[in-house]
Design goal:
324 residues; alpha+beta; Sulfite Oxidase, Chain A, domain 2; 7-stranded mixed beta sheet; 5-stranded mixed beta sheet; 8 helices; globular; binds ligand MTE
């Protein structure tokens, strides 16, 4: 039997309500064998739901990808029916029901521009990029700054692999990632007071951390539009607004990028945005989180439970506003 030690981000099973996905797997395989099954090549199969991604990017054959066992959880995954129906995607509205509107997002053709301080700027089609990359599935927590949380099976590749492909020059210190800008395709972008396009950024050191992940899929299939198809960031130790969706430009810079939420309200949403239960948002506590699909609140953990992997990134930066 597959035995492994518990990693720092794993919640005890009792901390969360059992979910159907979890239960299904258990029913199928029986108790602890479920964990072993997760290690099988290809990972588990997730039930198909109406309206889910059709693989419009021409990459459906790549799913499901092998699950990387280093990133499994000891808490139930959030069922797709909850996580796919409660989204932040301001390009398609400011409430959580963006799924119908996000049908307007056309993901093919999709080109990603890689520029700035790199050896040679280039543009690459999404499908070409994905087929160059080592796809794997990882189970990650996600903690929104609004104090809700979920656990999601992303498929994708390490951001570090994209950085290696881009070959940044010695002057590069940051990676800026941007969403498309197209008012026709995203009515939310007609709201002039938002600093479109949605922009996020990481230091190069953060981008090279093993946890920084570019997701191309979820629940064993290509990304659903509302999750930020065809390519979105997943940085689980930071508040969710750092995980920019529908990326079409990645720029290496010497200056710290001005991010979307920082541009709107810097005192509440800063550049670093690392999760810390002890540092309240100016208008609410960050001590606990509501788990989507349950009526439970669970304690929030420092760096969302990933301190072991990321705390070292911030040595010497204690004077920065690391947790807002
Ligand atoms: N990316 C874009 N382009 N537009 C957005 O509005 N919202 C962010 C982030 N990425 C957002 C975005 C916020 S606030 C969160 S919490 C997560 O996406 C939500 O991801 P989810 O909808 O997949 O749960």
């Amino acid at each position: 039997m597959h035995i492994r030690s518990k990693r720092s981000w794993e919640l005890p099973e009792r901390a969360a309500t059992p979910e159907a996905v979890f239960l299904d797997r258990r029913t199928l395989l029986g108790g602890a064998l479920g964990l072993a099954a997760a290690a099988l090549p290809g990972g588990p199969a997730f039930a198909a739901l109406p309206g889910e991604g059709t693989g419009a990017t021409g990459t459906a054959d790549l799913y499901p990808a092998r699950r990387n066992e280093a990133y499994t959880l000891d808490r139930p995954l959030t069922e797709q029916r909850y996580s796919a129906d409660y989204n932040n995607f301001y390009e398609y509205g400011t409430n959580k029901t963006v799924t119908p509107g996000s049908n307007a997002l056309k993901v093919q053709p999709w080109t990603i521009k890689v520029d700035g301080l790199v050896e040679k700027p280039f543009e690459i089609g999404f499908e070409d990029l994905v087929r160059k990359m080592p796809l794997e599935e990882r189970l990650y927590r996600h903690r929104c700054v609004e104090a809700w949380a979920m656990a999601v099976p992303w498929t994708g590749f390490p951001l570090a692999a994209l950085v290696a492909l881009a070959k940044p020059t010695g002057d590069a210190k940051y990676v800026r990632m941007q969403t498309f800008l197209d008012k026709g395709m995203a009515p939310g972008q007609r709201q002039f007071f938002y600093p479109w396009p949605y922009t996020e950024g990481l230091t190069l050191a953060e981008a090279g951390n093993e946890l920084a992940f570019l997701a191309t899929g979820v629940y064993g299939k290509p990304l659903l539009n509302q999750f930020g198809a065809p390519l979105r960031l997943a940085v689980p130790w930071k508040y969710g607004f750092k995980s920019v969706k529908s990326i079409n430009r990645i720029t290496f810079t010497a200056e710290r990028p001005k991010t979307f939420w920082e541009g709107l309200q810097a005192s509440e949403y800063g550049f670093w945005a690392n999760v810390n239960p002890a540092v309240p948002h100016p208008r609410w506590s960050q001590a606990s989180e509501r788990v989507l699909g349950t009526d439970q609140r669970v304690p929030t953990l420092l760096y969302n439970g990933y301190a072991e992997q990321v705390a070292g990134l911030y040595k010497g930066l204690e004077k920065e506003r690391l947790f807002a």
